[in-house]
Amino acid sequence: MELKRVVVTGLGALTPIGNNITEYWEGLKHGKSGAAPITYFDTSLFKTKFACEIKNFSANDYFDRKEVRRLDRFAQYALVASDEAILDSGVDLNVVDKYRIGVIWGAGIGGLETFQNEVIDFAKGDGTPRFNPFFIPKMIADIAPGNISIKHGFMGPNYATVSACASSANAMIDALNYIRLGYSDIMVTGGSEAAVTQAGMGGFNSMHALSTRNDDPQKASRPFDANRDGFVLGEGGGALILEEYEHAKARGAKIYAEVIGGGMSSDAYHMTAPHPEGIGVIAVMKNCLENSGLKPEDVDTINTHGTSTPLGDVAELKAIKQVFGEHAKNININSTKSMTGHLLGAAGAVEAIASILAMQNSLVPPTINHETADENIDSELNLTLNKPQERKIKVAMSNTFGFGGHNACVAFKSMEDE
Amino acid sequence: MSDIASRVKAIIVDKLGVDENEVVTEASFTNDLGADSLDTVELIMEFEKEFDIQIPDDQAENISTVGQAISYIEEAKK
């Protein structure tokens, strides 16, 4: 059977550098850092005392008091970002077939704060299990897509993808494939995460995964810099409306880009460490090129996973050289995590959105905070350091990799010529 | 209003996010105050905590209005 074409018709974002798509793009374009001292809890005993929190967000502006209590922050972010994307798509929910609209949403963890607080309460008690009835339904990762469908009445395929930091990239690929195969006309997809909590910070700190540059948080996320010392935890949500091309055309929808394919692979190597030769990463980009019907030289930009960890950044760039050969140095490579921090399960979605906005604006957002070249990184690669670069983008790829060795890569193509 | 009644009403206002004026004696948690099954369980647990009592499940099933909650707790605290 012939696969249907899929396009992006709506975007929504709630990120540490901007609370909607317009603000997010402004932040990306200007190389804004979202890092700051943590405000959610007392960090005096924590090794890392900063993160990329969402700023100026009050749940009460979006939800009534009862809803706020029933929604963990990761689910609040999911609803806010997806509402923006649905509105942006201009789809009239009164005329579409809601059985043909699904929601596939990524969350690496889910309601970590809910889990943490319920267990703290339990531990303070006498052992009697007096858990709140909302504990489980607030915490589970799939409650985000569940709540989106409840709010809008979407009755198509609905579930969550969990592959750590690749979660929302996997969500987008699944959403793409459901439309390609004809199961749905429209899919709401993306991801959200809210792990800036004591458990989240403490847990990642004990893995030595986080930067500890407490004296200069805004300079801490520095992918590809020789003095990088770990990732900066971020939070938020990103949403995309994927739509079958003819369906979008028929309703005269604004089209941002075509989603031309996705690649998936596993390192099959270690729980958290990337494979030193990046074999899984090589495989995922090759899979993505093949699935998208692309040749390596077609690719203009790659928004890397680039978390600012010593091992991961080098392995990913090695893999890019392996896959793209001589063309690698013609590609605008960047890491928007230098600005947003690492949004874990939401990373794939917010970074894909960054790639699409770059395409729309013919401007590649920078990899900020680069000061010292790393001798293990080929100096011929264009890492879009510190300043945005103008570029006409026909094809953009976005990489995301998760603990567990999960790799996912998505490709977007400009629709300008159609 | 008795002390118990005012504390019960305060919990309902807080947990169900409803206006204080709606929390009248005959108001049903589910039919009048918008509670679902999970809200109802949470209310019972809050009553237990606030008044330091145990409400067995088979008795909790009979507490579906504001007045029933107040009477049950007043009885239990005698």
Automatic annotation (TrEMBL), chain B:
<keyword id="KW-0276">Fatty acid metabolism</keyword>
<dbReference type="InterPro" id="IPR003231">
    <property type="entry name" value="ACP"/>
</dbReference>
<dbReference type="InterPro" id="IPR009081">
    <property type="entry name" value="PP-bd_ACP"/>
</dbReference>
<keyword id="KW-0596">Phosphopantetheine</keyword>
<dbReference type="InterPro" id="IPR006162">
    <property type="entry name" value="Ppantetheine_attach_site"/>
</dbReference>
<dbReference type="GO" id="GO:0016020">
    <property type="term" value="C:membrane"/>
</dbReference>
<keyword id="KW-0275">Fatty acid biosynthesis</keyword>
<protein>
    <recommendedName>
        <fullName>Acyl carrier protein</fullName>
    </recommendedName>
</protein>
<keyword id="KW-0597">Phosphoprotein</keyword>
<dbReference type="GO" id="GO:0000036">
    <property type="term" value="F:acyl carrier activity"/>
</dbReference>
<dbReference type="GO" id="GO:0009245">
    <property type="term" value="P:lipid A biosynthetic process"/>
</dbReference>
<dbReference type="GO" id="GO:0000035">
    <property type="term" value="F:acyl binding"/>
</dbReference>
<feature type="modified residue" description="O-(pantetheine 4'-phosphoryl)serine">
    <location>
        <position position="37"/>
    </location>
</feature>
<feature type="domain" description="Carrier">
    <location>
        <begin position="2"/>
        <end position="77"/>
    </location>
</feature>
<comment type="similarity">
    <text>Belongs to the acyl carrier protein (ACP) family.</text>
</comment>
<keyword id="KW-0443">Lipid metabolism</keyword>
<dbReference type="InterPro" id="IPR036736">
    <property type="entry name" value="ACP-like_sf"/>
</dbReference>
<dbReference type="GO" id="GO:0005829">
    <property type="term" value="C:cytosol"/>
</dbReference>
<dbReference type="Pfam" id="PF00550">
    <property type="entry name" value="PP-binding"/>
</dbReference>
<keyword id="KW-0444">Lipid biosynthesis</keyword>
<keyword id="KW-0963">Cytoplasm</keyword>
<comment type="function">
    <text>Carrier of the growing fatty acid chain in fatty acid biosynthesis.</text>
</comment>
<comment type="pathway">
    <text>Lipid metabolism; fatty acid biosynthesis.</text>
</comment>
